[in-house]
Amino acid sequence: MLGGTRTGGRLACAVVLAALMPVAAAHAATVRVGHAPMRPVGARFAGGVPAAARMHITVALRPRDPAALAAYARAVSTPGSASYRSYLGPAQFARRFGATAGQVRAVRRSLRARGLTPGALSRGALSISVSASAGQLERAFAVSLRRMALPGRRTAIAASSAPAVPAAMAAAIQGVVGLDTTAAPHPLLERAPAPGGAAGARVALARPHVVTGGPQPCPAAAAAAPGQDAYTADQIASAYGFSGLYAARDHGAGVTVAVYELEPNDPSDIAAYQSCYGTHATVSYIPVDTGSGTGPGSGEAALDIENVIGLAPNVNILVYQGPNSNSGAPGSGPYDTFSAIINQDRARVVTVSWGQCETALGPTDAAAENSLFEQATVQGQSIVAASGDSGAEDCNTGGAVPNTQAVVDDPSSQPFVTGVGGTSLHSLGPRPTETVWNSGGTVLSGMLQPGATGGGISKLWPMPAAQLNSAAALNVRTAQAAGSACGRAGGFCREVPDVSADGDPASGYLIYWNGRGNVGGEPQGWQGIGGTSGAAPLWAALLALADGSRACSGTSIGYANPALYTAAGTAYAANFNDVTSGNNDFTGTNGGRYAAGPGYDPVSGLGTPYAASLAGALCASTIKLTNPGTQHATVHNPASLRLRATSAAGARLTFAASGLPPGLKVNSTTGRITGQPTRAGRYTVHASAHDPGSQTAGATFRWIVGAAPRIWRLSLSQTATGPELAFTVTAGRDAPDLQSLEIKVPRALQVAAGRGVSVTSTARTPARVRFSDHASRGTVLSVRVRKPTRSVRIALVAPSLRARGGHVAASTLPHSRQVVTVSVVDANAGRTQLTEKVAVTAR
Questions:
Q1: Fold observed for domain 187-461+495-619
Q2: Residue 7 in contact with residue 150, Cβ under 8 Å?
Q3: pLDDT tens digits, residue range 525-577?
Q4: How far is it, in rounded angstroms, from Cα 56 to Cα 176?
Q5: Do 569 and 616 touch, CB atoms closer than 8 A?
Q6: Residue 713 near residue 107 (C-beta atoms within 8 A)
Q7: Which one, 61, 500, 663, 812, has the greatest CB density within 10 A?
């Protein structure tokens, strides 16, 4: 149990905190950021942390405008928004929402002043890594670090208080992640202790494999499944309606899935699974910080990877492996692993099967995670996370002092994450028979069965817009989600999970693990594993198949909850299997909370998927508007741009654009932007395309309107050898460099035809200016500057320039006035024509 949750807990917490008071006084003019860490009841001191012990922490930076970031994350993922699916890359995110350059410099200076060496800034500008000794961290942040023994024979590092930072920097720092490791994520897999249940208990598991159009098991896997109380991939695909996607030749090609892991796995296990199913998915491993070690792990990583491959066989899989916070290199490994996935931005879909009790994590680290997940949403990444295996009582670790408080699991409770719960899959259907997974008190083959699906009401987060705006018939906004639980009086709290799938280890997933037998006392090879960590990669595979489908037209679904709740509110029965029986009160101490019912409930979410129909519904609102990139124009010159968009449903689209340079307008029917800009400057244009159903796609780009070029120092002289024309042309502010000029000489003069035309430059650096010259009929000379330049001076002299008819006409006598026209031509900005009169002089 967490300290502070009951009277005894508060007393225990107070005793622990008193014993951990820092030995060094806090720095002058400092404040403590974040919240003081809570200590689990039953924890005891196990000595100090050696001063030389190395730790890796992360300083989480506050977004420059948290409200604007949250608003854009909602808009970019909400059908009907003008910014819907107008995703940004990490660099764009950093410029718009990350910490400012000034804030980053100030935080770096502060860290150095306190004896620390700041590491890299994340691409999204939301965090700075720091590696240091425990002694350096204690002095820098005015905390004491102690080792603690926790229930379950786990050790951790405990900080005495929230870290102290300079008062001037407090507004820029969201928190320091990794100083306290008492709340460590754990894998959310479960094994049935007695494979091969009571006679007749799992008759459905004995059915032969199903021809789905997807991967088919080899004889060894098909034979092993019934005795392991497990389903093969084809049976799972059949139950949840994946066959329709396979029939459309959708196997996930071109889509990358990131698998979040805090443990290693044996690649030979994955190879054996692929060999059995005849798949060839590319699996790559990306270590984060010090990595996660070597060996086969606990089976969590194998379960995650193999479940994705079994359902989406052609995806590209990136396995990010970081150290857990209670590992041999304690610190910010769990946060850093998320940060690597999101800042590298290589995967469209992210599956997470590791979690921890929401209140044990605490609001400071949860807020730092939330900023990362907002970044992922803005970038168009979908994150699915298992909702936990301890039922409604997620903080209950099964120790000597049980914690029966109703609490949900992080990160599935995060507002911008899709939480995935677990069911018991009794029969495959078509249209499966399912109940809420809760093995509390269930005995099969004489052994108590483990676990129950996580779910309930968040104590940290208000109800996100996707739930708040859902159809009334779904029953999301009920009294049990009242805002008092999360400090939002008069409102509602976040409910978890959003969706679900098979999670019961007694109806588990057949995987291949520990094939080499490296883990003694554990099954070897084919075996059944359950837990909500089996359900999360199933949903990741579904989203990957949807992303790769023709219906989505290559556009990522991104944060899926708005589209999921919209699909449920529009055609619930076509897209979901409703789970209406059971609850997740695993300990039996919470009055049957939370119970399943029609529509949404905080135990099975919206239900389990009917994949083929749901994938189409997730993409039904897909409009793809191609971002045209930065545009250039010159003031008073014609400009034209065609906005190009497509609708997955083939609907007729209309267009709009705001922020256009003055003088330009968009045709709502054709999407063509035309006109002549009337004012130079840099403009941010928000373009959008709309269908009749109010679905929208947006794109944001810059339009730079340059000032007109200038012609000056113009002279026309009559020399002994003939006429000479000289002038300087300078590009306008914000206009492209000069590259193409057309010079129209006075009518009394002409440019010599043919080759050998001589043009010279008297610019300050004439050696850098070279010309490609083409004479035309008599009065026009085209000049192309091989290396674009801001300013150039050109002189045309004999024999390139000569009097018409071989003699100087009377109109070219000294002191007469002639018209000289110079056109500046640029492929991006159009043509600007400059006309000047000049007096003829004699030399």
A1: Rossmann fold (3.40.50)
A2: no
A3: 999 999 999 999 999 999 999 999 988 877 899 999 999 999 999 999 999 99
A4: 11
A5: no
A6: no
A7: 500
